[in-house]
Predict the structure.
Amino acid sequence: MRKVRPARDFRRFVVVGDSCAEGLDDRYPDSEHYRGWADLVATELERRHPGVHYANLAVRGKRLDQIVTEQLPAARPLRPDLVALFGGVNDLLTRGCSAATLHGRVDRAVGGLTEICDTVVVFTVSDISRQSPVLRGLRGRIGLLNGAVRHAANTHGATLVDLASQESVDDLRYFGPDRLHLAAPGHRRVAAQVLTSLGMTADPAWTAPLPGAPVRAGFRSHLQWAWQQAAPVLVSRARNVVVRRQPGDGFAAKRPHLTPVG
């Protein structure tokens, strides 16, 4: 495994990936812009060692093969000291995605990033299939993705943030309305885990249990979610197939240039 560089050396922080790296569903207060775990990490790096520059090249909807061909070439000339990759969920939602395909895409993404930067952070994903009967069909694919991420992290010397073991997946307060993207409390927990993986302490409030009992979905809320959230996504994906529209078309990175955090 590669050694993690001291925090003071993380002067150029670059994030690649999909909507989970972009920051959906964690909006800044009184703003339409998304914050997310990556912005939180960047702000904390800047607080500790002023002068950090940060770019977020992630684009919602992107698969790992798109991340490799579109975002890695954009990340290379930025000469990052720290790179984080959060992606793979959109691959799980693609018809015909096989174990071999997943492993190949993950390996190319992680391996490519470790050629660009010494310190690369990657993530397993939470088992969201536990939240709804509609999602149970994803359980096997989630396991395949997480296995591929662990193998690639070990092979290429990346730093692994293991979200697969998080019990918070059973509490819907950590997730947005679609039960896929994290809400603000979920993003804070992920940011804390990233900082911990890099040898830094995080605000204890970010990982403190939420007050009250966990919120779990009942039968009626499952039906409401399926109608209001799942069905429109399925229709949109079917329409994209018909018109040959690629995931992420029409969207741009929220922070495409390496600019000061402060």
Notes: The radius of gyration is 18 Å.
